[in-house]
Amino acid sequence: MPLAVTAYTATSALGLGLDAHLQALQQQRSGLRPNDFGPASLACWIGRVTAVESTSLPASHAQWDCRNNRLAWLGLNQDSFVARVHSAIHRHGTSRIAVLLGTSTASIGATEEGYRRLEDDCRLPADLYRPAIHNPHSLSAFVASVLDIHGPCQTISTACSSSAKVFACAERLIRLGVVDAAVVGGVDSLCDSVLYGFNALELVSPEPCRPFDAARRGISIGEAAGFALLERADALPEATQQLLGYGESSDAHHMSTPDPNGAGAELALRDVFERAGIAPAQVDYINLHGTASQKNDAMEAALVARLFPSSTRVSSTKGLTGHTLGAAGVIEAAIALLALREGFVPGNAGTRSPDPACTPHFAWRNEARPIRIALSHSFGFGGSNACLAFADTRR
Fold this sequence. Notes:
Peroxisomal Thiolase, Chain A, domain 1; 16 strands; 395 residues; 11 helices; eleven-stranded mixed β-sheet
């Protein structure tokens, strides 16, 4: 069932809100910087949201204070998103809206800090002795509290597909009549577990990441917060941007490596084609998962060549934002929606020498062109795959 996207917002290393993201995309200005995060900074590049340090939660929500929830607060307060949600609450009622958010680490950064500062009796220090933040549901519970929403509240943690899968969950709940609208999104903030964990897997690049480059060396990790408001399209005919459908699959090929043939990703794509009622030739633009890891990019380039005509334009924008992990799905959905709204294809940022396996589908620089249907790919660890299809009804 198509859903109207009645509001959305993005906060990342590119800036706060949609205008900052659009400007960075148009200028191909990267938000990556040398790593200056943590007590012992790993030699790599990161996509850091510097405004998090100067952000504080209101006293009424002090129990939720941690980097991840401060980033969520920062993200919620862009693009009049809270006001748009309050309008939806007025239309539907506070118990008829769901909060569905994705994250890969939630507020684990606060837990890391707590363990670094354990008291002599091995207890967490008093300022971090707050059970609300030391669990995976911290983010969703915090956002539901801030927005005063009392409908279903769910946290999805499926690695890099987390905040794409929340769109699918929202569609099911709305179609089945459980709710009338949903706040979806995702937040992941920088923490040592992520930086050193990916480095231990030899996936972190010592230089800014270069998706689909012949000499790519791995990912650059970023942090971000993104949210969208989804409602029934038939009830809001004036809404011009829609979620047409979604596709999901789990290939379980390997814990940290995609199926080299892209079998799981292809299943997700065929699922989105069927649900959205579209053919590959109708897709104008795809925001690729494109992490700049050797195996992901090789798989995805082959998948594009196999399934889409050369008229479909594709690119990765992780060279600008970094890989924002559990927030990647919603941030790249927001970028796809901006491309639809503004009529342009963002260039594949960071690439110097394109991998010879890349076909003419790839847009290496920005291209002005009308886009009616755009896809966003999210392929997570463990073979958790999700694809989203968006449309602009003005075209």
